[in-house]
Write a structure and sequence with these properties.
This protein is an alpha+beta fold. It has two domains: 67 residues; 203 residues, Quinohemoprotein amine dehydrogenase alpha subunit, domain 2 (Lipocalin, Beta Barrel). Helices cover 20% and strands 43% of the residues. It is built from three helices and 17 strands. It has a nine-stranded antiparallel sheet, with no helix packed on it. It has an eight-stranded antiparallel sheet with strand order 4-3-2-1-8-7-6-5, with no helix packed on it. β6 and β7 form a beta hairpin.
């Protein structure tokens, strides 16, 4: 009977690799456990454990021996994504939301980041066979909900109709931008900028702030009134700038989009967020 349970688990694992349907796999596991429980009803939990252990064992074996890897693992690695804000739209944050994304070798995409109202968010789900990812996240702290389909490919992420809504606040549709993240080599910059500037707009500033910055220590862009430092491991950035209206330092954060040779993020003003953009001037 134990051999039958092991064979059921391994068979389910190989079917999962071939069919690539998580719901169908779950039904097979349920059916196998029910059948084994009917045949040997004593201690039925052992069949759940036995089948459950051999499913990933079979998937790992298939991944190692197959010339073409499981389809959910065709695209994997580190990505960065930004949800550009809509400056000037009443009630809508003007900064760029951002996230740090990973796709594991079984095709499960996980993202964590911050919305441009300062609320943290996260989400995790498998990428479909056609490279589509169902993006849904509810951040209870701010009653924010983000929903949309995101295309995942070797060049990055993209989504043209991603909805961000806030209870008793706003509902808007945004364009999601994404890039693969390639950590720079030692003593190398993350971006190939020749005349970098940091443009800071919105967020209750008296006027837009555009500052030419210099590269320092390969990962920091700085001037007297602004500093932006890139994390070489994650591709995120943090920094500060001086508000020209108050003289106070304001913190900012975001991510690098290497396929666009830029970095985007946000800062929080008194009543509105603002956009941070590092790039070469056009």
């Amino acid at each position: 009977m134990y051999m039958l349970g092991a064979l059921a688990g391994m068979g389910t694992g190989f079917v999962d690799v071939a069919v690539n349907d998580l719901l169908f796999t779950a039904l097979l596991v349920l059916g196998a456990c029910m059948l084994l429980g009917l045949l040997r009803p004593r201690w039925p939990w052992r069949w759940v454990v036995l089948v459950g252990v051999f499913v990933p064992v079979a998937e790992l074996a298939a991944y190692l021996v197959m010339a073409v890897k499981p389809t959910r693992g065709q695209v994997y690695g580190s990505f960065l994504t930004a949800l550009p804000g809509m400056a000037g739209t009443l009630g809508t944050p003007g900064g760029d939301s951002y996230g740090v994304v990973t796709v594991n070798n079984m095709g499960v995409l996980t993202v964590g980041g911050a919305l441009a109202d300062g609320v943290a968010f996260s989400a995790s789900a498998p990428v479909s066979k056609s490279g589509q990812w169902p993006f849904y996240s509810y951040a209870a702290a701010g009653k924010d909900a983000v929903l949309g389909w995101v295309s995942v490919g070797s060049n990055g992420l993209a989504g043209t109709n991603v909805s961000w809504s806030k209870a008793a606040g706003f509902t808007n549709v945004f364009q999601l931008l994404g890039s693969v993240w390639q950590a720079p080599a030692a003593k190398s910059p993350a971006l190939s900028l020749t005349e970098p500037v940091v443009a800071i707009t919105g967020g209750d500033l008296p006027e837009p702030l555009t500052t030419a910055v210099g590269l320092s220590q390969y990962l920091s862009y700085a001037a007297a009134n602004v500093t932006l430092t890139i994390n070489s491991s994650t591709g995120g950035f943090s920094g500060w700038f001086v508000n020209p209206g108050t003289g106070n330092k304001v913190t900012m954060s975001g991510v690098v989009l290497q396929n666009r040779e830029s970095a985007r993020g946000f800062f929080l003003g008194r009543s509105q967020s603002g956009e941070v953009l590092l790039q070469d001037p056009y």
